[in-house]
Write a structure and sequence with these properties.
Two copies of one chain form a homodimer. In chain A, about 40% of the residues lie in helices and about 0% in strands. By secondary structure, chain A is mainly alpha-helical. Chain A starts with a helix and ends in a 29-residue tail after the last helix.
């Protein structure tokens, strides 16, 4: 009898769980998963490097300068500021949830976060250092030498290990627990009717065809301007630069819409200043649909439910340079 | 009888305490006191503003850009980088323990931290905004509006309240518990014999005449180049710009030596790259004394015992701009 009860309760439990999960199991967007399987020591080292402007020639620009973790993992500028105030060609994408992307950069030219991390360090228009110089700087700093030894178990410091650490830190930068995810997980009151209607519009009008999955984007490349060509002064042509295929002209990685309330301005050229504008342009150019003001407002309201818990961490204290550390060269 | 015992013990306690304090009571340097009487809510608001690059015209430069709390409260550059990569005229002093200074800036032109905080925001060569614009930006951001109301109890946002908050945060940036302070507080093993000998030299050769008190400096103005003139390409003339008195030419606020291991390069022009060089120049120009290599090394070793606990805090998450927020103008 008790076994039967037990079994009944167990079956009931399974059934409830299935329903609870099942409620939103058919949705094209999945909740952000919390971080798992992180090498904590490697990530802590990576956090220091992420915040260290000594990886740049000037000693002034760090990863966090353009992917600012106080501001949604972006710089909130149309295009970024590089060494000697050079104007970058493209909008800095958010680092938040970037581990979920199919590839890195707008054109997907880096396969993963580790490959990405090496790019800006050596880009003359961004951090303007070189991998050799960056390694020399890090290897000259006793505090880093100790920490690399602790983490990697050997004396070698190279760009592979530096970018490995930065990438590990970046993997921790996910933003679970948005109101939308709470709704996906079964809390019917987590979003309002208006926001829910925005989500329905987002699905029925076709936005979700590209903006789907855990990151609500980031998992495919698509042409900017399908129904109508996109007009811009920005000369960047997207994925064609990687593949060489003419069909990939103006094709870009679909950006994640997670935390999109924080990652303004929008598009690869940063020309859309507001979510209202971005939603309007996307509707017309990608879907051939003119959203009414109310429809637009609903979609924007939905998009704002995608803001998740921002990564919270202690500001890192960087190990100091010593007499032999190569000095920054901001004005040479 | 028990009362007598009690009294004896109490008197003994007082006596021991007096001795414990008394051990180093005659020293010209006092331990950094932990933060007291802080308005925590005001400081938390100030922390956000301190890290907010939207106080600059470009949207790229925050207080933390040049007074980086990951790097001893400085930028570790000879002179700082301002709006459009302008080269600043002078070395950024550390914000750490700056609440202990007699006045702010190298020339003391601001009476206190609050007055200081308004300077760089509106300086065309630094953050290049204006107080009006900075207030407009902050007042447009709902997250700030709520927090100002909570903290100040009213709707008004003005530069007075903005700088009040920044200054309150900066008051929290003290660095107690250095090894030297542990020694001052009675732990004889906290510094080595070599370091202790460096401290004795620091006192007997006269460094301590200017570098004394809780901050080991910061409490007086002195001429740079007393015994021998200081040679520099840097055109800044110091306190004469404030007082108009010819006697104040090349007079600067004595910098704090707290955390000096982290605040390289040194002097108002940032021309001394190492503590060894700075100690040598100071000895010759201020004291007419050529330190031997060993003496220099001892003083440098002592100086490195002044590195205290760095402020540890959660990286702030900034409230996002909204459609009506004035946009940054990095390239105009």
């Amino acid at each position: 009898m008790r076994i039967t009860q037990c079994l009944q309760q167990a079956l009931l439990g399974v059934s409830i769980a299935a329903v609870a999960v099942g409620v939103r199991a058919e949705e094209p967007i999945q909740p952000i998963q919390p971080v798992k399987e992180i090498n904590q020591a490697l990530a802590e080292l990576g956090k220091k490097l992420y915040f260290d402007p000594r990886l740049s020639k000037s000693g002034f620009i760090s990863c966090n300068s353009c992917h600012n973790l106080s501001m949604g993992g972006t710089d909130n500028l149309k295009t970024s500021i590089g060494d000697k105030w050079q104007q970058g060609p493209i909008n800095s994408p958010t680092v938040l949830n970037s581990s979920l992307s199919v590839a890195q950069f707008w054109d997907g030219r880096a396969a993963d976060l580790k490959e990405q991390a090496g790019g800006p360090i050596a880009n003359p228009g961004e951090m303007a250092s070189s991998h050799t110089l960056a390694v020399d700087v890090v290897a000259s700093i006793p505090g880093y030498v100790r920490e690399f030894k602790l983490v990697f178990g050997g004396n070698e410091i190279n760009i592979d290990r530096i970018t490995d650490a930065i990438a590990e830190f970046e993997k921790t930068l996910v933003t679970p627990n948005s109101r939308f995810d709470q709704w996906l997980l079964g809390d019917a009151d987590a979003i309002s009717t208006f926001e829910r209607e925005g989500y329905e519009l987002f699905k029925t009008s076709g936005c979700v065809a590209c903006h789907n999955g855990e990151a609500v984007g980031g998992n495919s490349f698509q042409k900017m301007g399908i129904v109508e060509p996109y007009q811009t002064q920005n000369g960047v042509e997207g994925r064609v630069a990687v593949t060489g295929k003419d069909a990939d002209r103006f094709t870009f990685k679909v950006p994640t819409l997670r935390n999109v309330e924080l990652t303004y301005p929008y598009f690869h050229d940063g020309e859309a200043e507001t979510l209202t504008e971005a939603t309007d342009v996307m509707g017309r150019l990608q879907l051939g649909r003119q959203f009414s003001d109310e429809e637009n407002a609903k979609i924007v309201a939905f998009l704002k439910t995608l803001t998740g818990d921002q990564p919270q961490f202690l500001m890192p204290i960087l190990p100091p340079s010593v007499d032999g550390t190569p000095r920054p060269q901001p004005f040479d």
